[in-house]
What does this fold into?
Amino acid sequence: MKTILIVEDEPKLLEVVSSYLKKEGFHTLEALTANDAILLIKNHSVDFVILDLMLPDMSGEALCQRIRQTHTLPVLMLTAKVSEEDRINGLAIGADDYMVKPFSPRELVLRVKTILRRTGDEGLLAEQITYNEGELKIDAREQEVYIHGDLVSLTPNEFKLLLTFGRHPNRVFSREELVEKILGFDYEGDTRTIDQHVKNLRSKMETNPKSPRYIITVFGVGYKFSGGNHV
It folds into this structure.
């Protein structure tokens, strides 16, 4: 049974979301504040976070960044902000998806299931991929990435994107292909979302993100992974 942490300061909405998730077989934890959420994540095994951006003690963006420092669990943001810039900022700080209020609780449950499917272990093989004599290591089982021996903190989508690239070096992927592999075939947003994920990856793993060695832009098509020697 997957455990979903709902961080929402509106008690009625919190109750509704929790009720719908429980009906679908999920276990839920509820937090009205960011500090409560931090304690719950510390003391419980949490598989997924539903996070409202407007919290009384800390912004949802700041809490998401805190979570990302130590965890790779999926985060779905709930927001009243509807501009493209706000949505891109949410993805940039580590959210896997977002929903704009007001929303359908049934759709929220569907989003949760979709994200869990695409970030789950069932598609990962027990293997390690190493490039450039150990400079880059991708551990598929543990969902961890190391650069020069240092652990790199990635979101689930960023990890899945890098794993896809790493398993298919020098193959050119279109944005549409990457959207289907990373975000799911039912994703209806802009394919340029992939560009933001690539930008995030480069900032975390490239010595010079503006002149990347690993994730190369293929102009007019998409991206490819150029990892050097592969072990």
Observations:
- The two ends are 36 Å apart (CA to CA).
